[in-house]
């Protein structure tokens, strides 16, 4: 089974949080309430440098995904 690149998630234990799960490498979960990111991968020093340059693009993609999803709910 394939998964979409991004998934929305929520949890009643965190009523104000909106989670976006990134299912491709590098996998992570971001809480849009406070922009806290939990990486689901192990990184070495080389990976961290590459990740820093890619993180800005990933966060833009997360925000674009979330905005698109909210627009679709409002239709």
Would you write up a description of this structure?
The chain is α+β, with helices and mostly antiparallel strands and 75 residues long. The radius of gyration is 13 Å and the shape is globular. The protein contains one helix and four strands. The N and C termini lie far apart (29 Å). It has a four-stranded antiparallel beta sheet, covered by helices on one side. The longest helix has 30 residues, at 45-74. The protein has one helix at 45-74; strands at 6-9, 19-22, 28-31, 36-39.
Task: Provide a compact summary of the structure.
This protein is of the alpha+beta class and 75 residues long.
Taking all residues together, what is the mean pLDDT? 91
What profile does the largest beta sheet have? 4 strands, antiparallel
Provide the helix percentage: 40-55%
- Helix and strand element order: EEEEH
Q: Which strand-content bin applies to the residues?
A: 15-25%
The low-pLDDT segments are none
Measured between the Cα atoms of the first and last residue, the distance is 29 Å
The radius of gyration over CA amounts to: 13 Å
Please give the number of β-strands: 4
Number of helices: 1
- The shape, in one word, is globular
Task: Give, in spatial order, the strands making up the sheet with the most strands.
Answer: 1-2-3-4
Structural class designation: alpha+beta
């Amino acid at each position: 089974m394939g998964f979409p690149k991004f998934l929305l998630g929520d949890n009643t234990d965190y009523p104000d949080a909106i989670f976006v799960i990134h299912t491709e490498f590098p996998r992570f979960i971001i809480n849009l309430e406070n922009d806290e990111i939990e990486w689901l991968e192990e990184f070495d020093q080389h990976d961290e440098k590459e990740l820093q340059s890619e993180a800005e693009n990933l966060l833009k993609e997360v925000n674009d995904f979330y905005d698109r999803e909210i627009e679709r709910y409002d239709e």
